[in-house]
Amino acid sequence: MKIAVLSGSPKGELSVTLQYVKFIQKKFPQHDLKIFNVSQRIQRIEKDEKTFERIIDDVKTSDGVLWAFPLYILLVPAQYKRFIELIWERGAQGAFKGKYTAALSTSIHFFDHTAHNYMRAICDDLDMKFVESFSADMDDIFSEQMRTRLLMFADNFFKAIENKLPTMKSYTPLTYSKFRYVLGKVKDRVDTCGKRIVVVTDLKDNGSNLAKMVERFRESFSQDIDVVNLYDIDIKGGCLGCTECGFDNICVYEGKDEFIDFFNTRLRNADITIFAGAIKDRYLSARMKMSWDRGFFNGHIPIHEGKQMGFIVSGPLSQIPNLRQILEAEAEMHLANLVGIITDECGDSSQMDALLQNFANKCVQFSVENYIRPKTFLAVGGYKIFRDAIWARIRFPFLADYRFYRKHNLFDFPQKDKRYLDYSKQMFDLIKKPGMKEVVRKMIKTEMVKPYQRVVETK
Ligand SMILES: Cc1cc2nc3c(=O)[nH]c(=O)nc-3n(C[C@H](O)[C@H](O)[C@H](O)COP(=O)(O)O)c2cc1C
Predict the structure, then answer these.
(1) Is residue 70 lining ligand 1, measured as CB closer than 6 Å?
(2) The pLDDT value given to residue 257
(3) 202 Cα–ligand 1 center, Å
(4) 263 DSSP assignment
(5) CATH topology of domain 197-369
(6) How confident is residue 416, by pLDDT bands cut at 50, 70 and 90?
(7) Rounded Cα–Cα distance for residues 144 and 150 (Å)
(8) Would you say the CATH fold of 197-369 matches that of 2-162?
(9) Sheet order of strands, 308-314 included
């Protein structure tokens, strides 16, 4: 069988993910896995339609398609996202329709589920027959058990194609509203109270709902705010995944384009950051994604800590809970307070005016009051993954992260949690005493709430 492998790492042949593909190829020599480094070659593919068409021709004549990609900032790399956008922009969906497909990724399991949800939804949108996904830890290939599982995944994929096994869709198609936002008059303007507000947008069409939403948000303030269109910034390309930045947060693009300057000045210094984008497939645009990927030169260091963040989104966000989760995680992982996500789904212009006005108000109010909501599982869980990884497996080459985590006491392993460890030891000793186990068991509920009640009474 012929399988078209759409390889998503900007590192091309030096990709870790690709070694998983090559391992499958070695163990299944009867099948022909044809590899296309679509992320690495994205600029060529964009410029030269023939290169794109050659890949699409191979997809057309293949028996199955394997999406093989690394996790980049909770999704696939921006270059891969761009390739996916081109499928629709160049009307190549037909080549994918009805093809058996599977998704294989490598990562450190930080939001691998959101990337896989995304890819699965894309396959459903392309009307493909999705068999399975396999989210490998990048080091799984060193384990015999995981290599066996990888081969089982591949075998299942090949068998599904050979035996024409039935598959199911997980996502329903998106429906877009025809609503056109008409800006109303601004009555009361919000004083920025000296807060620096930046809106980062990827808008292309000045007549779009997104453009009007950004405009209405800008007009809500008495003073000027900074609106940055990512298309006005010279960004030479996406993150190359080289991780040369790990030592000291210096990117290989330093001095070559304008992104790093934008990041270190306008973005880093803002008190309130709003990202404004229109939904493109099941995410925002590849341009927005590129800017988030390129921020990786700053490592795993949050840049919006204690600040306010929000999103203005045009498109059917309520139909894409996966994207909402990604946006929420973006804010939480940067230790920012998510003021809100405003969309144009209400379909009513005066309601849009009110929502954006209130949003502007809340941004400043929360910033002035230093209001930060508690983290949810997204950041609580996410930080534990980063903490453990930076402590050991990726301490090298991410030396700058290690220094930052040490300086800010982020290596808060529970082994050091003396208060709870001492308490547990005392209680273990107590219940070992004859007859005490049953006495203590019956006291758990009443004793547990007592310290909380004391706070309510005394504070
Ligand atoms: C820019 C960048 C962003 C990354 N983002 C994530 C992420 O969100 N979640 C994760 O688990 N790993 C993330 N990683 C780690 C890679 O997914 C992992 O190292 C992968 O194995 C790289 O595969 P490749 O060599 O095929 O590119 C990121 C790596 C880079 C360079």
Answers:
(1) yes
(2) 98
(3) 24
(4) I
(5) Rossmann fold (3.40.50)
(6) confident
(7) 10
(8) yes
(9) 226-229, 197-201, 272-278, 308-314, 337-343
Q: Which CATH number fits domain 2-162: 3.30.70.3090, 3.40.50.360, 3.40.50.9100, 3.80.10.10?
A: 3.40.50.360
Mark out the alpha helices in 343-435 (DSSP H runs): 349-369, 377-391, 399-407, 418-432
Ligand 1, atom 5, residue with closest C-alpha = 72
Strand, helix or coil for residue 403:
helix
Contact at 8 Å (CB) between 74 and 283?
no
In DSSP notation, 90-133 reads: TT-GGGTTT-EEEEEEEESSSSHHHHHHHHHHHHHHTT-EEEEE
Whether ligand 1 lies within 6 angstroms of the CB of 71 is answered as yes
Instruction: Identify the bridge partners of residue 104 per DSSP, sorted by sequence position.
Output: 68, 134
Spell out the domain ranges in the chain. 2-162, 197-369, 417-458
What element of type H or E holds 439? Answer: helix 436-458
Q: Which of 313, 264, 306, 271 is nearest to 288 (CA)?
A: 313
Look up residue 90 and give its two tokens.
């160049």
Phi and psi at residue 313, to the nearest 5°: -125, 130
Q: How far is the CA of 146 from the centre of ligand 1 (A)?
A: 19
Residue 251 has pLDDT above 90, yes or no: yes
Quick one: what percent of the chain has pLDDT higher than 70? 100
Which residue spans within 99-258 are E strands per DSSP? 100-107, 129-137, 197-201, 226-229
Residue with the smallest CA separation from ligand 1 atom 22 is: 70
Say which amino acid occupies 165.
Answer: L
Evaluate: CB of 106 within 6 angstroms of ligand 1: yes
